[in-house]
Amino acid sequence: MLQYQIIPVTHYQQNCTLLWCDQTREAAVVDPGGDVARILAEVERLQLKLTQILLTHGHLDHVGGTAALVQLRQLPVIGPHQDDMFWIGMLSQQAQMMGFAPVANFTPDRFLHEGDKVMVGQAELEVFHCPGHTPGHVVFFCREAGLAQVGDVLFQGSVGRSDFPRGNHQQLVDSIRTKLFPLGDAVKFIPGHGPMSSFGQERRTNPFVADKHYG
Ligand SMILES: [Zn+2]
Ligand SMILES: [Zn+2]
To answer: Which ligand is nearest to the CA of 134?
Structure first.
């Protein structure tokens, strides 16, 4: 069964997450935005075998530690969707905008698409392409564990910003309501920032995507 540990990183308190299979102890790090030493210390403490880097989207607070991790551990970089390459290609501008130290560039080894599957040990993650916050944003969903890693698509009580280049609020809302909510009210999700929630709770109370706003 899939297990998880959230590690908030960078001054944006981005929810970098370790996902691992408790049978094999093979692990993926999702969105290593920075603070690579802290991430690796947690891998050590949990006695995990880190095998891959998964990325939800190309924003620096989610990918800033990727090049450093690749250099240290030679891990494959999987995701996001190729439509986020324009963000990944602008890492140095993003660092300037967000007040980050400059970071090295990287190229994903595998882009992800709607319907793809990613294995973490024996646990399967399904991939959903959920544009709107960024055009190439993907969400990882483990059906067996009832757990989704949604990046900056959806938050407890809010949704991702869509005022960036190639952002689109309607597309974001459609992604959430037509792809994520049908996975079930009981599904718990880890957002890119802030506390966890469930799709059911957001359907009831989220001012941007609750059912009552969409007859
Ligand atoms: Zn973002
Ligand atoms: Zn973010």
So the answer is: 1
